[in-house]
Inverse folding.
């Protein structure tokens, strides 16, 4: 009698193993496990320091604890990514990115090279060490199920157009956190500018690959979701893939010019050094 | 100015059409919170002028749903709050609507001052000055809430322009004695306030003063 190849535990096991081997090569957006086997690593980065290599396709999300001094490089591979970012102190999760303090303390709403991401406890979570992008957004935060439903017909995790907020709820649940812990975040690679009357301008820029290097100045939990920006006028769910690569290193040193680039930044670094003293 | 004089001025500044159900003066530097029932209106009166009133809103029945500055900004495509602005929650629903505003515009990107951010902006020696987040934590603790409930906020009567190069800052206020804002509750809303104690920037004209809270229906 002919039976299905998955009718027995042994048959199901062999089927699963064969499927994994057969299909892995065809999947475009996948991680390198372990990360030290990564290919196409930036010059000067040694393989043994690599701790994360993952590709997030449209709607993809990830979360990770990064040790102090780790550099997180996010590559907008095709120039059309939108990475919504939340950051927490990994050892004290109720300390988190405070976007208002980040822009107010640095007297600057448009983040770029040298900008710090500040926590609500007056410390430096991460510093922007390299940034070849056209800019970022500190005003609009995560796309939501209702904004995605209005534009794409759905914004649910189980649908074809997941929103950043829904992705965050899943990512945070894996660290014991909930929707209560989703504060305003930052959207990387999609610049939003304020006009004189206070209205927002979303720039549709030509697709140009770029990257951002964020250095962890504390032991951080980072949460990323790659979903279309809430102001993106396109009616189809368009967002380009990103590669996320991280390698271990040292946090900012005492003699680093960034540390003393403004009195506010200096005191933020001092508070951070004091925390770990 | 004497207290009585200030309050008389406030009475002149806005006639209330309706039944007053709650009326209190929040002292300079003090916290305050109150549940405004759906359909009721909260009037916040800047008694002496240029007094920032930091404010977080929560769904009174489920405080995990709370005010979201980004949702509010996106909904009206503008960073400034004024008459007609719907104050949107993290779940995309309207908590309250601004139904009157004699000041002209209010801030929602400048955040709340904290002891910790004060050290960055004004020096490590300011750590022990009272701050808005302290007020929010005091009021949260009374209601079984805490640090995880700190989120984006509104700064009534505070002026934070953003220039074309992205420069921003808390600058001299646009408010004056008796200016007020009316907030109609579109659901039962827990309104949590810090009458800002900041003395290092112009948000309170370097001089914190009382404000008046009137709830009417």
């Amino acid at each position: 009698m002919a039976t299905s190849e998955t009718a027995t535990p042994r048959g199901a096991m062999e089927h699963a193993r064969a499927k994994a081997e057969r299909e892995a090569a065809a999947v475009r957006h996948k991680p390198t496990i372990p990360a030290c086997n990564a290919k196409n690593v930036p010059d000067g980065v040694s393989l043994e320091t690599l701790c994360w290599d993952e590709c997030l396709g449209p709607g993809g999300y990830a979360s990770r604890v990064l040790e102090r001094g780790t550099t997180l490089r996010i590559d907008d591979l095709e120039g059309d990514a939108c990475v919504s970012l939340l950051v927490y102190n990994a050892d004290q999760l109720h300390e988190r990115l405070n976007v208002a303090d980040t822009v107010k303390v640095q007297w600057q709403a448009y983040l770029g090279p040298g900008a710090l991401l500040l926590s609500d406890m007056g410390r430096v979570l991460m510093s922007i060490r390299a940034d070849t992008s056209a800019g970022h957004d500190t005003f609009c935060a995560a796309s939501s199920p209702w904004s995605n439903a209005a534009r794409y017909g759905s914004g649910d995790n189980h649908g074809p157009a997941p929103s950043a907020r829904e992705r965050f709820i899943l990512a945070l649940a894996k660290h014991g956190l909930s929707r209560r812990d989703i504060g305003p975040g930052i959207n990387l690679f999609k610049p939003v500018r304020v006009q004189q009357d206070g209205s927002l301008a979303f720039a549709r820029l030509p697709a140009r690959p770029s990257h951002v290097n964020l250095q962890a100045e504390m032991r951080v939990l980072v949460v990323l979701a790659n979903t279309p920006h809430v102001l993106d006028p396109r009616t189809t769910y368009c967002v380009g893939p990103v590669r996320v690569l991280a390698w271990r290193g040292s946090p900012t040193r005492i003699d680093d010019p960034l540390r003393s680039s403004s009195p506010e930044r200096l005191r933020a670094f001092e508070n951070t050094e004091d925390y770990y003293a | 100015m004497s207290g009585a004089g200030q309050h008389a001025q406030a009475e002149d500044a806005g006639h209330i059409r309706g039944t007053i159900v709650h009326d209190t003066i929040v002292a300079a530097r003090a916290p305050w919170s109150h549940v405004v029932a759906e359909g009721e209106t909260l009037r916040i009166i800047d008694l002496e002028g240029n007094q920032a009133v930091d404010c977080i809103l929560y769904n009174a029945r489920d405080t995990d749903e709370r005010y979201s500055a980004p949702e509010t900004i996106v909904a009206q495509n503008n960073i400034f709050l004024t008459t007609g602005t719907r104050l949107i929650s993290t779940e995309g629903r309207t908590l309250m609507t601004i139904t009157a505003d004699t000041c002209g515009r209010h801030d929602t990107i400048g955040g709340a001052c904290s002891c910790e951010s004060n050290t960055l902006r004004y020096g490590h020696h300011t750590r022990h000055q009272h701050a808005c987040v302290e007020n929010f934590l005091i009021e949260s603790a009374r209601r079984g809430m805490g640090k995880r409930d700190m989120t984006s906020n509104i700064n009534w009567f505070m002026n934070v322009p953003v220039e074309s190069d992205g420069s921003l800052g808390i600058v001299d206020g646009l408010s004056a004695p008796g200016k007020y804002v009316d907030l109609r509750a579109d659901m039962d809303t827990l309104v949590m306030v810090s009458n800002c104690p900041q003395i290092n920037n112009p948000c309170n004209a370097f001089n914190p003063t009382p404000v008046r809270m009137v709830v009417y229906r």
Q: What stands out?
A: The longest helix of chain B spans residues 3-13. DSSP finds four helices and ten strands in chain B. Strands of chain B lie at 20-26, 31-36, 41-46, 53-59, 86-88, 94-101, 154-156, 179-185, 189-195, 211-216.
